[in-house]
Fold this protein.
Amino acid sequence: QKEVEQNSGPLSVPEGAIASLNCTYSDRGSQSFFWYRQYSGKSPELIMSIYSNGDKEDGRFTAQLNKASQYVSLLIRDSQPSDSATYLCALYSGAGSYQLTFGKGTKLSVIP
Amino acid sequence: DAGVTQSPTHLIKTRGQQVTLRCSPKSGHDTVSWYQQALGQGPQFIFQYYEEEERQRGNFPDRFSGHQFPNYSSELNVNALLLGDSALYLCASSSGPAGNTIYFGEGSWLTVV
C-alpha cells in the first residue's frame, strides 16, 4: 500500500524566514510528486511538481526530490503570513495507477 | 478559461438518503477524478472516469458510484448516506488518465445528520 508521511505540525516560522516542509513515501515506483497548498475551507491548489532527482525552483518555492531516500521537500523562502496554510504532499506512481496519493498535510503558520 | 466547477457547494443530508454531486472539468480536460477529504485528512481517491468509463477505483464501497457524460462532465452518487460520509468532495480534472497536471474544483461540502 502506498503511503505518504508528513509531519502534521503546526510548523511556526517568523515572517521572512525559510519554511521547510518534508515528506517521505513508501512506494519506490512513484514517478511524480506534487505539493499542494490548501487554505482553510478551500480546495487544494497545485504549487509545485517535481519528477526527477534534485531541486526545482519557482519563485520563492523550491522542491527537492531524492528518490533513493524516498524523500521530497518544499522550501518556502521569505515566508509571508499569506503562506499560512496546510501543505499537502502527493505522489503519482504512474505505472498503471491513475490516482494521487496524499499525505495528511503539514499546517504552516507564518508569524508576522 | 473556466476551471473545474462543482455543484452544489454545500449541502446537508439525512442518514440513509442519497446525494448526487456534479463536476465540469477544466476546458480541454477529458478525465475526471473524485476525492473525499475528511476533516484533518488528506484527500482520498474515490475513482476516475475517462472515456465515460470508470478507469480506477479507490478503497470505497459500492455505495459510491459515478458517471461521466459525453461532454466529459461527471457525477458522483452516494447511496445510503452514513454520518462518516460527511466530508469535502473534490473533483479533479486532467488531460488523459495519466495527466500529471491535476486541477481541483472548489469542492462540495457534504454534511450528513
